[in-house]
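Pseudouridine synthase II N-terminal domain-containing protein
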Amino acid sequence: MNPFSSQLVKDAASVWRVMNGVFSIYKPPGLHFEQMKETIMRNICRDLNQLKPYERQKYVDIKGSTQAKMSVVVRDSYADHPLIAGPQYVVEDLKFTYANKLSQESSGVIVCGINHGSQIIQQLREARLTKFYKIRGILGQARIGNFVTGKLTHKATWKRIRRHGIDAVCAYMQADHQKKMFQMAGVDIRTQEAYDLATQGIIRTGDAKIPMIYSIKCVDFQPPEFTLEMVCLTEDDDYLKSIVAELGYKLHSFAHCSYMQCTQFGLFNVRDALLTKNWNLQEILDSMSLNRQLLLENPHMLDPHDPKHAHLQLKSDANNNA
């Protein structure tokens, strides 16, 4: 239980002092990132202002003639009256940062930081953690932007496509990306040096802007729809859409993306992310406490040079192997 739960602490100033950390939220599809950010910050300020405010300043008023006995009256000062000074906490007081960003079409886990939590967010960015995606696609159609909301441009047959064909293309694309990783590291994939490099952990390119795919596989095929699970690094949503379109081309057809969900960022899993209805102060404090423990148990997530590669493993798999 969070020691700073609103059930235990009613003082807004005490809660504000511990509003430093990272929390994970679930962004639904169709919600713009800036709108999500503004909603969270407004909800935090709203809940803080509903707690017990700080003690108002006192105004000392001395009345009476200087030639006679004067009276001293102590009353609340109007300088910090809520109707004059406004709310105690406003959005501008918060420093909001994020470790990963999703487009309006995407959904999934986003790791955010508040106030001094921005320092941890910066470390998470520099660590370049892997991200797990679940992506659904539709065969036989090409659309502008490679997404279901785009205008239909081309059609092609898909009835001859089988599951083993998709699996073969996915295996080829994965092997091609793995080969490029070793090439960019200047190592021949057939040598002992390449094996030693692979055993040290995740192979990262020197350029943080180059996207890489570590794993891609088809987990469901209900033609013309299919579902992919991908493990990526330094990608963006446009790149993921292009992978789906490329898969369609290699199958001698077309394909576009209909759904994208980031299920895990490092070890921050979507199951622990806060739903829209839970974007409030209490739930965010609880999430900060949970993620603080997660980072203490897995310090390698903050170190890009750590040889461990547990963050390449699904969280559910890691729990089963424990």
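thats it. The two ends are 24 Å apart (CA to CA). Confidence is low (pLDDT under 50) at residues 1-8, 309-314, 316-322. bye
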